[in-house]
What does this fold into?
Amino acid sequence: MEALFYVFSFIAIFSALMVVTMRNPLTSALYLVLCFFALAGFYVLLDMQFLAVMQILVYAGAIMVLVVLVIMLLNISKIKSVKTDLHQKIIGIAISLVLLVEIIFYIAYGTTKKPTGIFTHSVIDKIGNTRVVGEFLFTKYMLSFEIASILLFVAIIGAYLFAKKKF
Amino acid sequence: MLFWLIAEVVKILIVFAGLLLSAAYLTLLERKIAARIQNRMGPMEAGFHGLLQPIADGIKLFFKEDIIPSEANKFLFILAPILVVIPALTTFAVIPFGAPVKIMGHTVPLQITDVNIGILFILALTSLGVYGVVLGGWASNSKYSLLGGIRTAAQMVSYEIALVLSIVGIIMIAGDLSLSKIVSEQSHMWFIVYQPVGFLLYLVASTAEMNRVPFDIGEAEGEIVAGFHTEYSSMEFAFYFIGEYAQMVVNSAVIVTLFLGGWQGPFLPPVLWFLIKVFFVILIYLWFRWTYPRLRYDELMDLGWKFLLPLALANIIVTGFIMVLLKG
It folds into this structure.
């Protein structure tokens, strides 16, 4: 299991690096798909098959397909020169510094925690984690779930209005 | 542990070989049925009534010159056909194809792996099939291929929604996402009886997902040469072919598992029942292809978004209401 964790980590980090360094946007997009697969692997290792499949179904199967489609339609095969300005650089450096400090902090002061609660490995194996996720979504996190669904609904109507204006 | 490992490897090999072989022989079946519908004989030269035709075709494709167009993205050009085959073959991992058998005191389920999210696994892999087609179209560096790729992507994204929603009724009735549980839930009555609309929706949407006639605007011969695989030749072309037919077998197996009671049936052994049912669903797909003319692009989008999608949503709501009424 631990070996698999390192394999997935390596793939995730490598593909994430490739996403930002590749010159061809389509190749970048495909490396992002690979990154999503590595993340799905993490979810499987954490006993969350439901999240793993959703990750692939929603991100790799739907969102990235649209991204790839847009890249193909615009036919941008190569970015010739990247325009950067000072603001971008400053913000970028600041964000990466904060992240670096965070990582160092976690590595230095973090301790491993034993999982707590009633949902142990054997319980999840028996009832399946889809049931667990569903139960939580419709009881404890009902409000946030409904807010998210309303947001998505608004987004659908917004997209429809924008598309309609063209005609 | 060792026994489990060996059983698992043997199962994988059987399924893999069976899928590839049936994909090869489906080409012959398709040509024979096309011939029958058009009142011809079909392939007759290689072997008895053309039985060796798939092998002859395979050898021919294998020895053909492998042409990669100049200016094509070589890596993606070769990767694309592989991306069509892998999801199609992997999907079969969660489909139960027979009742558990006892070998030397061990119970071996005839299913490569029984994950508790079986249906979602199938849907996730189905949604990846679009990459092979789109990338193949883009990497060929040809306008016809690109047009085919874009058309196919738009089509598959649209029909995927109807495909996913058509299964929700089954999940609601069975109350489980695991395919082996869904099969055992159907021991009294097949789910096609409770979900006739869902069955028809899945049949139509999966035909569109496989880009088969009448939904083959991605490779429409009359308009864009051969669509996304215009520039493909030799083994890469063969991979697209294997992918398409393997997908057909897998989709038929999914339909049998979800709607037609899986491997269950009286008298005959379960594996045989499974094969018979799959064969009949495949026949329906072939029958579609040689009966209906191709849909125009706007007709295709209208059918997907204005007919199948609302119908799938209505099917879910009606199923829910009936379930609540029957309970109370």
The radius of gyration of chain B is 20 Å.
